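Project standup — Tuesday

K.O.: blocked on the structure for the chain from last sprint. Re-posting the sequence here as requested.
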Amino acid sequence: MLDIIFRRLRGKRILIAGYGREGKSTLKFLQKYLPHAEIAVADKNKQALNDIDNQRYKLYFGEDYLKNASDYDIVIKTPGISLENIDIDRNIVSSQTDLFLEAFDNQIIGVTGTKGKSTTSSLIYHLLKNAGKDVILAGNIGIPVFDCLKDITKKTIIVYELSAHQLQFIHKSPHIGVLLNVFEEHLDHFITFENYKQAKLNILRYMDNDDIAVTNNNLSFTADMMQIRHVTFDSYNFDDYCLDWDQLPLQGEHNVLNIKAALCACQTFGISVGELVPYLYSFKTLEHRMEFVGLFDGVKFYNDSISTIPQATIAALKTIHNVDFLLLGGYDRGIDYSSLAIYLKDNPVSNILITGQAGQSIRKMLQYYDYQGAIFEYDDMRQAFNIMKDMARANQICLLSPAAASYDKYVNFEERGRIFKDFARNFKSEKQ
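H.V.: unblocked you, prediction finished:
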């Protein structure tokens, strides 16, 4: 299978665009398998390139770090790099995902969606592993696929979590493509929702006749995509399997859909649902996803830092009832917050705490819909907890579910969630 990748790369001048986790993985792959290739590495941050031998590899950095991209035969782009306003032939743009799909597509269950892809990917892996299958989990969940090559045999099932960024420049779809949902997100990267949606649809766009799309019945597709073999997971009936939904680790209407999607995906590999159902109860939920942090000084704290869009926050509020303190806001990607404002008007929270430019956008939308609840502003997590310290009482609930990205103050949503949990564990109310 690797020969397919080698044919794409052998004899080519290669530029690695972006030198984060995946960029480092790509360079390591090239050093091992194509040690004599002409390779350059480009990253806006000069310090990111400090560990590269600049005698062996040409390096580009600074604001114009991609200005020479067209001098290369192939550009292996990492997910976070935007080519918007970059003068480059898109035909030379590839990625780890593009190369990997071309080589291993028949072994891959690809999972994407604006929300739920990490949970669903992890659940599919958990179910297949417990069913005795040779399976690996990789991709957007934090494991570059090139790092997994040593673990892949012809029998290995590869569960591949795919972001829109990873799907943007692919030319082959996975054998099983799971498309959970598509909502507005990453508009700072894709500029328009349509561009973002089309990137997501690439998970199905290049399927062959023997491939299978596992999709939400509410999604609309182009005429050519309608010819693909579809399984609509949301309308799939699992009543015959006596699932006790209240006892499953994954709770909420949105997780019912994630569970259905996972079962449908596994079923396409010839595994009966009856065999898989017992393993649903042993799944360990992921951090930062409606995670119960604990009861501290009488207050229950939930960390849902992964919620970076309004629909995810609404799902959290529908699952965690009677929230008294809701932390919203952060980095503003230009998302429409009207759906969240309408939900909160009909289901008010006693105290909303907002931060960042996204918080201001949420406030304006709440005001537009005449929201009557209390709204407080905070600059950092310490200030948010000081606000709660003055008001919180026993048996109240605090939920971090920001409906916004974290990049204005934090490296990522994980850092935001960890800091929230640190403050929660040391919480002391002055109103007890």
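K.O.: great, moving the ticket to review. Residues 253-267 form the longest helix (15 residues). The two ends are 64 Å apart (CA to CA).
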